[in-house]
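Section 3.1 - Work completed
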Amino acid sequence: MKYKKFVRLYSYSRVFKYYKATDGNKHKAMQLYYANVRIAQAFHPLLGAFEVILRNQLHYALARHFSDGSWIVNQKSGFMSAPSLVHIDKKSGKRKVNNYLLKEVENAERKIRDKGVAVTAGRVIAEQNLGFWNSLYEKHHYILLAGTPCTIFQSLPSGYGRKEVNETITKIRELRNRINHNEPICFVDKKRDFSYVRDMYQKIMDFLSWIDSTIPASLAEVDKVLGIIDKEEKKQLS
């Protein structure tokens, strides 16, 4: 495809990032655009596994903590509505309520009812996005849950705790969002660079190994990320 048509299809503002990153080489710009797509595509199975595994382990841990398999529904009037989630904003003097988890559960219940099916804990859990589970590692929720979210890990690195886990999940969420919005992931400081995706791949694998050291190997059949990064990087250097 000619560059002019490529730009018309994908928009000047989007393609220009690739054009600039490849020092004005139109062919390399299109090549890098497709490389970005292929690498993003390769991440999907790992990101899917990451989200499902994290969600399930947190559900199991919290079900044990509350001795309640339906904790996500029943805790709407429990820790999700705790008085400590209410504070007065120092600047505005207004009352602020951190009811993110509560709202997400209520929104999920509404969606389920709109489908004409019964609201169950399993369905509510399935409706939650990664932001919901990430929020359990925010300090205020983590304290209310007595540190339960970190009990899902078999082996955290020395010196790692809630803060580091929270930061890692946040970074992985950012990668997922960039991929879902077709944003560049093969850039560092607006320059062509594959170190970010290599680093994020390692963060995902490390995180999963903290939960269970056998998980990374179990994903070998669908894990093609590093191979595709290597292949695309060589194309850019040729």
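Second construct:
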Amino acid sequence: MINGVVAAPLMVIIMLMAMRRDVMGRFVLPRALWAIWWLCAGAMTVAAGVMFATWRS
């Protein structure tokens, strides 16, 4: 459960770093993969939100 919550912000941080040429050099992430990555990060965020919204004690 902790992994699912921590994964979304971590994916965003990794994505922001992978898009920067000064960080990645010639290995910068191609623009074609940006949309796929952001969709995955969004799906993880939604999944974590749904988990908290439906949590019962």
